């Protein structure tokens, strides 16, 4: 057995077993409370720059399947588990989690007291960490931590976003969602331009399944003029990693779009934060963030509660929302803003992930809302 260690910025060191690639990596230590969905977590670009601890005690039970990739590769900086299942049992599995982590060059550790690690992050807040499966001294690890940058102020969206526009044509698998979307029929095929800040594939699949032609453009660098030249009937703002306030190009672009057009606009996660910033609100860093698949969200208009998947470390401050923009959803765990909407324009966004990859399908109605807004425009 190859030993491994994870060291936190406060000097705490956990020792365990290497179950991934050989190496040493730094990142922001966070935790995810999901019982399943580890492959989607690993491949979600929103986790770029982070070392993810899974709180569920056994991870890897059902292996890894190609269809569950949310991007072309694993995106996390490192991965921490109590126990990594060595022999998966699932007819969809193509390889074990450990084999996948090794092939994807992800440094990972198990045999760690993840309860103690999670408690520490909840009490002290998320902090930088380093994982190693190499022969380095504890002093070397702590020295590397001192040189690691804070997540606050980092524009990681520019790192993971596409560098050139492309068209996405793959729909969702009907056996996964069937007719749950129930979007209206359009007089013509609408064109949706998706601003990529680190977009997940299942979001793109659901947009295609909604009946749109989907063009993906670089979110951090695209200009409003370039987007409008594509003649969009709807604009989508994607999820992504890092500090939303640092994505200055994307904020400026969206600000111009929302102030000069009435084109329907829908944002998720980082896209939600960028929409808030574009309208003049402020964002702030949460103590330990929201990462899991069972967070309760309440709609402020009718009190209905939905269960949704989350992955974010920043939030929009609802006290800074300008006149004409209101909070549409609230997280019942801590009363943070979970959604906003413009009062007089078809612009709305949510902090959580309605695309159910992984997580429940309660919030799929948001894709129907976007479709209804677009139908008003195209017929």
Report strand order across the widest sheet. Answer: 10-12-11-13-14-19-18-17-15-16
**SSE arrangement, N to C:** EEEHEEEEHEHEHHEHEHEHEHEHEEEEEH
Helix content: 10-25%
Backbone shape: globular
Portion in beta strands:
25-35%
Low-pLDDT stretches:
none
Query: What's the structural domain tally?
Result: 2
Structural class: alpha/beta
Q: State Rg.
A: 20 Å
Q: What CATH architecture label of the largest domain applies? A: 3-Layer(aba) Sandwich
Biggest pleated sheet: 10 strands, mixed
Structure description:
By secondary structure, this protein is of the alpha/beta class. The protein has 2 domains: 3-147, Glucose Oxidase, domain 1 (3-Layer(bba) Sandwich); 157-378, Class I glutamine amidotransferase (GATase) domain (Rossmann fold), CATH 3.40.50.880. The chain contains 11 helices and 19 strands. The protein has helices at residues 38-43, 97-103, 114-124, 138-147, 157-160, 174-177, 201-209, 224-228, 248-260, 270-278, 365-378; strands at 3-8, 13-18, 24-32, 50-54, 58-59, 78-80, 83-84, 107-110, 127-132, 166-168, 191-196, 213-218, 234-237, 265-268, 283-299, 305-316, 325-331, 337-342, 347-350. It has a 10-stranded mixed sheet with strand order 10-12-11-13-14-19-18-17-15-16, with helices on both faces. The protein has a 7-stranded mixed beta barrel with strand order 1-2-8-6-4-3-9. The protein has a two-stranded parallel ribbon with strand order 5-7. Helix 9 (248-260) packs across helix 10. The model has no long low-confidence stretch (mean pLDDT 95).
């Amino acid at each position: 057995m190859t030993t491994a260690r994870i060291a936190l910025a406060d000097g705490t060191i956990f020792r365990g077993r290497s179950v991934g690639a050989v190496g040493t990596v730094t990142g922001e230590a966070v935790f995810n409370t999901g019982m399943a969905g580890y492959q989607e977590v690993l491949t979600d670009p929103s986790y770029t720059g982070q070392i993810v601890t899974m709180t569920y005690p056994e991870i890897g039970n059902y292996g890894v399947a190609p269809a569950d990739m949310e991007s072309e590769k694993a995106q996390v900086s490192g991965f921490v588990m109590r126990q990594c299942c060595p022999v998966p049992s699932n007819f969809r599995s193509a390889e074990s989690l450990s084999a996948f982590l090794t092939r994807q060059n992800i440094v990972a550790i198990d045999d760690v007291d993840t309860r103690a690690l999670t408690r520490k992050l909840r009490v002290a807040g998320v902090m930088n960490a380093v994982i190693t499966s190499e022969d380095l001294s504890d002093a070397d690890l702590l020295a590397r931590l001192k040189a690691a940058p804070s997540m606050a102020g980092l524009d990681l969206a520019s790192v993971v976003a596409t560098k050139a526009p492309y068209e996405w044509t793959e729909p969702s698998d009907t056996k996964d969602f069937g007719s749950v979307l129930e979007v209206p029929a359009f007089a013509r095929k609408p064109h949706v331009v998706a601003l990529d800040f680190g977009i997940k594939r299942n979001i793109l699949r659901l947009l295609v399944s909604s009946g749109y032609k989907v063009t993906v453009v670089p979110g951090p660098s695209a200009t409003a003029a370039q987007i409008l030249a594509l003649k969009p009937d709807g604009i989508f703002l994607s999820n992504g990693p890092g500090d939303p306030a640092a994505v200055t190009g994307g904020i400026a672009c969206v600000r111009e779009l929302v102030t000069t057009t009435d084109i329907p606009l829908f944002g998720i996660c980082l896209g939600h934060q960028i929409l808030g910033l574009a309208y003049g609100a402020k964002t702030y860093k949460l103590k330990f963030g929201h990462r899991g698949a069972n967070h309760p969200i309440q709609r402020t208009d009718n009190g209905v509660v939905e269960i949704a998947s989350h992955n974010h470390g920043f939030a929009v401050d609802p006290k800074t929302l300008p006149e004409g923009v209101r909070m549409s959803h609230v997280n019942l765990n801590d009363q943070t803003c979970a959604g906003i909407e413009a009062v007089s324009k078809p612009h709305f966004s949510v902090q959580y992930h309605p695309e159910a990859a992984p997580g429940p399908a309660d919030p799929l109605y948001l894709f129907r809302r976007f479709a209804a807004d677009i139908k008003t425009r195209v017929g």
